[in-house]
């Protein structure tokens, strides 16, 4: 049975004090749930977040990014070993904001994926089409090639540590959400793409999350679709009440 996952991507929000305040609020709302719950604070606050949540076995602290190299002269970057040394074992890679503003490509992301997996980290791998791609009916081609280019060099066994996150760029932070049907259609296509390469036995075990303006008001309907296994939540993860309302949508 594949896992249900709800992950909050805090992006470049919350300083140390704000991080503590939000985590305290999250802790007070934590209930045992079927879903795995994750939060991704900024690098500077990961250690504090990990410490504050040590006695909480529901919420996992994860990273928003990492570098592909193990160490060396990469000013301003963070390695997998650094993350692991502070208890962080899961990393988001390939977010559209990383692709757009920091020029990450399928090829550079393939290296990051390899580096994370080599350290036994779990990867939440993001991808998704832009509005123009959807308008021209090209969304499956784009999504299919993003997955193939960054992941299809991997052995089937690697997929036990991979979570996929479909995030249509036109729905991120815009208030516009893919309809539950649009999400389901794309998630089914993603699972078939995986199955064509690795077989359904593998594809059926990979959790595929939806991201893009998920809110308490729409989470239940989106998560109700058979190939949607959870969500990657941006804006709504910054309010404890909204985030847990989304977690509880399962
Ligand atoms: P959003 O962001 O929920 O604010 O649209 C989603 C994401 O970027 O992961």
Tell me what you see in this structure:
With 250 residues, this protein is of the alpha/beta class. 41% of the residues lie in helices and 14% in strands. It has eleven helices and eight strands. The protein has helices spanning 16-29, 46-52, 80-85, 96-101, 106-118, 131-135, 139-151, 180-198, 200-203, 216-223, 240-247, and strands at 5-9, 36-40, 59-61, 90-93, 122-127, 162-166, 208-211, 230-233. Strands 3-2-1-8-7-6-5-4 form an eight-stranded parallel sheet. α7 crosses α8 (180-198). The protein is globular. The structure holds 2-phosphoglycolic acid. 2-phosphoglycolic acid binds next to β8.
Overview features:
single chain, 250 residues, alpha/beta, eight-stranded parallel sheet, 11 helices, 8 strands, globular, binds 2-phosphoglycolic acid
Order of helices and strands: EHEHEHEHHEHHEHHEHEH
User: Which small-molecule species are bound to the chains here?
Assistant: 2-phosphoglycolic acid
First-residue to last-residue Cα separation: 15 Å
Could you describe the largest sheet, including whether it forms a barrel? Answer: 8 strands, parallel
Percent in helix: 40-55%
The total of helices stands at 11
Number of strands: 8
The poorly predicted ranges are none
Global outline = globular
